[in-house]
Each structure stands twice: as C-alpha cells, then as structure tokens.
Amino acid sequence: MLEMWGAGPTQGVEGLVPGLRLPEGGFREVRKRSYSVFFASDFEVLLRRLGKSSLIVSGVYTSIGCAASAMDAFMRDIKAFAVADAMADFTPEDHGEGLRRMARTCARIVGTGDVLAALGAFGK
C-alpha cells in the first residue's frame, strides 16, 4: 500500500484524543496494515476480549477502507455502524456509492449525532 498511497497521515492518536475528549486510557490504537482494520491485526481478538459486538466506522475513503472494514466486521458477526458525516472519499459520488454499498450489504448508516446520543446513553 505504501507504493500506491504513500506514507499517509503522520499524526498519531495524540492529536486525535483532545478532539475526541476521550478519558485517559479510553482508547486503543490499532494500526491498519491494509484496507480493512481486521487484516493482519489482532483487532477482532481485542474486540472479543473486551466483549464488544459493534464497531463504529469512520475515516477516509468511504468506498475503500471504511467499506472493507465494515464488510469484514459483518462477516465476523460484528455490527458495523458507518458514520456518514465522519467519512470522506475522492469525490462526493464515491462517498455516496460507498455508503449505498455498505447500507445494502454490511452496515447501518448513521450520523455523528446518532453516535453521540447512543454513546451518551452509556455514560448515564
């Protein structure tokens, strides 16, 4: 992938945590090695050990990496929630097609408001 896409973003999770307002230790970094977060990683094992059965999918390339991760989650009986307004793609058309494909095959399409409301319910 390095030859095709380059090194990618260089900022680690340190730059993300303040924006997400996660509590100390409230995240685990998983480095993607290919389009799907499940490829060549222990991500599924981590989810199972934590007792998690759902995955919130966001990121760049809705129609590529986000879709691959959502499909792999579905094939592992993990519910994928694709956050439409927290994804991007090369073009608006690619973004829309990626969302439509995920909706038809492997994920529920939601917005950040839906996710924040659902996560807020767990904190009460």
Explain how this protein is built.
- This protein has 124 residues and is of the alpha/beta class.
- The protein has one domain (35-122): 3-Layer(aba) Sandwich (Rossmann fold), CATH 3.40.50.
- It has helices at 2-5, 17-20, 43-49, 62-75, 92-105, 112-122, and strands at residues 54-60, 79-88, 107-110.
- Strands 1-2-3 form a three-stranded parallel beta sheet.
Short summary of the structure?
The protein contains 6 helices and 3 strands. It is an alpha/beta fold and 124 residues long.
What descriptive keywords fit this protein?
124 residues; alpha/beta; Rossmann fold; three-stranded parallel beta sheet; 6 helices; 3 strands
In what range is the share of β-strand residues? Answer: 15-25%
CATH topology, what is it called? Rossmann fold
CATH class: Alpha Beta
The shape is: globular
User: How many DSSP helices?
Assistant: 6
Mean pLDDT: 85
The beta-strand count equals: 3
Low-confidence stretches are none
Strand order of the largest sheet: 1-2-3
CATH architecture: 3-Layer(aba) Sandwich
N to C succession of SSEs: HHHEHEHEH
The CATH homologous superfamily: Isochorismatase-like
Distance from N terminus to C terminus (CA atoms, Å) equals 42 Å
Estimated structural class = alpha/beta
Global Rg: 15 Å
How many distinct domains?
1
Q: Helix amount, in percent?
A: 40-55%
Q: Main sheet? A: 3 strands, parallel
